Q: What sequence folds into this?
């Protein structure tokens, strides 16, 4: 176990107070052994709102925050995706803080390797966030696959039919950019890309076509793809944010040699079909629409994530998402983009990265840097 957490519990600081920050705050409040220490955002009104709601100090500079609240153990980086590497390296290298990294963790596989290298040298930890792995439906299907209830995986299908109109992308300069956001696959469907591996196994090669059909942005808002697993199964991905007028579905289904499992709902929260035990569907489904103040698409998994982090420090329990696991998801993500760029099949294991996704754009980055004084 690394680091030296406070005896009274881990103290967490939020770097970034965007859409999901309130969900982190509420999740932290539900977990024993962890507490919110401070919040920070370049926009004072955003930081002040969460600071007031959760009775913690609020800052517009994390440099000031670390100086004035020195007993912080972990920094939760929930800034724009394209800033994760820069912010993460500063938390690790300059302030010696463990880091929670929101999806998609980093924009490029090379970013991940660089950040973990710095963490290793400093004796610190990085905790990637893939909260949908904790959904009841996902856990039940994972259990069934491990126990052989569904048999061998034959075909996996992903469907994400969400709505992100132009006004969504116009909310901030980083949205809809390859450098800092990524499109329907990187931003909205990254959890489903992760679940392909988490449930179906490692993917060998992919073939993807991307289009921009519903908004004036540089990234894709629609993806159609096929892929092949190393173990012989196949799969398809249909992901779009061009659905109108609302979010409709985010599902993954698995056809096995012994049965079918289909997880659906607004955010893979409902076990809709489970042929090994149809009665299990009700017991392993959750109503995300009823999460007051949390946001329906986020679910309950962040609570479990913070419990996992507490268990890591308190009991030396392995954190469920390892470095290699996270790297596998990022390599699969980049394979879809590389396939669209080459207009053909690509190998997932290749060390090549997308020519577009995560390429630096300093003009945008400057908007989200904390000024040095």
A:
């Amino acid at each position: 176990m690394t680091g030296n957490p406070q005896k009274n519990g881990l103290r967490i600081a939020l770097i970034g107070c965007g859409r999901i920050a309130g969900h982190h705050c509420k999740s932290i409040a539900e977990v024993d052994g962890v507490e919110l220490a401070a919040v920070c955002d370049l926009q004072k009104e955003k930081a002040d709102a969460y600071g007031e709601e959760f009775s913690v100090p609020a800052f517009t500079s994390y440099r000031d925050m670390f100086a004035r609240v020195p007993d912080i153990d972990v920094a939760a980086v929930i800034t724009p995706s394209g800033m994760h590497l820069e912010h993460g390296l500063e938390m690790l290298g300059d302030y010696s803080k463990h880091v929670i990294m929101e999806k998609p963790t980093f924009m490029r596989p090379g970013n991940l390797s660089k950040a973990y290298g710095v963490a290793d040298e400093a004796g610190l930890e990085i905790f990637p966030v893939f909260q949908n792995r904790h959904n009841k439906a996902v856990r039940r299907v994972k259990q069934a696959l491990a126990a052989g209830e569904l048999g061998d995986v034959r075909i996996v299908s992903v469907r994400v039919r969400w709505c992100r109109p132009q006004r969504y992308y116009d909310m901030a300069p980083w949205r809809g950019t390859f450098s800092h956001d990524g499109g329907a696959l990187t931003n909205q469907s990254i959890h489903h890309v992760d679940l392909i591996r988490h449930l179906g196994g490692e993917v060998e090669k992919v073939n993807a076509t991307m289009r921009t059909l519903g908004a004036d942005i540089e990234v894709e808002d629609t993806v159609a793809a096929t892929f092949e697993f190393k173990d012989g199964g196949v799969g398809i991905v249909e992901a779009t944010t061009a659905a109108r007028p609302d979010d409709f579905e985010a599902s993954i289904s698995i056809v096995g040699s012994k049965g079918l499992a289909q997880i659906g709902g607004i955010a893979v929260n409902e076990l809709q079909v489970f042929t090994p035990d149809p009665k299990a569907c009700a017991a392993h489904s959750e109503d995300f629409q009823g999460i007051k103040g949390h946001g329906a698409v986020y679910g309950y998994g962040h609570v479990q994530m913070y419990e996992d982090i507490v268990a890591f420090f308190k009991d030396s329990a392995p954190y469920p998402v390892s470095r290699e696991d996270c790297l596998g998801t990022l390599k699969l993500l980049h394979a879809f983009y590389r396939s669209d760029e080459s207009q053909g099949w690509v190998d997932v294991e290749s060390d090549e990265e997308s020519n577009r996704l995560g390429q630096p754009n300093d003009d945008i980055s400057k908007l989200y840097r904390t000024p040095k004084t």
In short: The domain at 10-131+362-368 is CATH 3.40.50.720 (Rossmann fold). The first helix runs from residue 21 to 29. The two ends are 35 Å apart (CA to CA). The chain has a mean pLDDT of 95.
